[in-house]
């Protein structure tokens, strides 16, 4: 019996598993906040109804957080790339964030870690988080487009 590569290495399942674990770690209703790149990745990987299984109330673009109003205790799970624009915007909205808790999940793939959260970015986030809303920063490896279960592209 020869095992097919697609039976043991399914890149779509790996990507979905990373996201599902990150969403499962946060209890209660939550918003999934994405940047343009990760939003494109997630629309291919998940149906909106599947995200409801993880208590995702809504999926929004990071730029739409600024005008968002929420009711009650709300969590924001930010699945964004650690670009300078994203970090700057996140530090800008932190003081008046509509979320009581924020979990920043860094989306990265590069094996040389060129896409990791820099020490300067961490310091900026810490300085902007006056109300201690950021609960966790986690790096996961999902910023790629899945074309087929065993084919993906980085761009």
State the share of residues found in helices, binned by percent: 25-40%
From the spread of the alpha carbons, the general shape counts as: globular
Mean pLDDT: 78
User: Which structural class should the secondary elements be placed in?
Assistant: alpha/beta
Residues in β-strands, percent: 15-25%
Q: How many helical stretches?
A: 6
Radius of gyration: 16 Å
According to DSSP, the number of beta strands is: 7
Oligomer: single chain
Query: Stretches where pLDDT falls below 50 for ≥5 residues?
Result: 1-6, 109-114
Span from first to last CA? 36 Å
Largest sheet, spatial ordering of strands? 2-1-3-4-5
Listing every helix as H and every strand as E from the N terminus to the C terminus, the arrangement reads HHEHHEEHEHEEE
Largest sheet: 5 strands, parallel
């Amino acid at each position: 019996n020869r095992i097919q590569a697609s039976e043991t290495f399914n890149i779509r399942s790996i990507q979905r598993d990373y996201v599902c674990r990150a969403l499962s770690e946060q209890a209660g209703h939550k918003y999934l906040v994405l940047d343009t790149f990760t939003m494109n990745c997630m629309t291919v990987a998940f149906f909106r109804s599947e995200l409801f299984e993880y208590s995702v109330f809504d999926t929004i673009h990071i730029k739409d957080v600024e005008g968002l109003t929420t009711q009650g205790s709300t969590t924001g799970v930010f699945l964004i790339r650690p670009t300078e624009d994203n970090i700057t915007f996140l530090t800008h909205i932190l003081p008046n964030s509509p979320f009581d808790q924020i979990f920043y999940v860094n989306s990265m793939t590069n094996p040389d870690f060129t896409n990791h959260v820099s020490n300067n970015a961490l310091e900026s986030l810490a300085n902007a988080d006056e109300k201690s809303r950021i609960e966790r920063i986690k790096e996961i490896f999902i910023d790629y487009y899945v074309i087929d279960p065993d084919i993906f592209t980085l761009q």
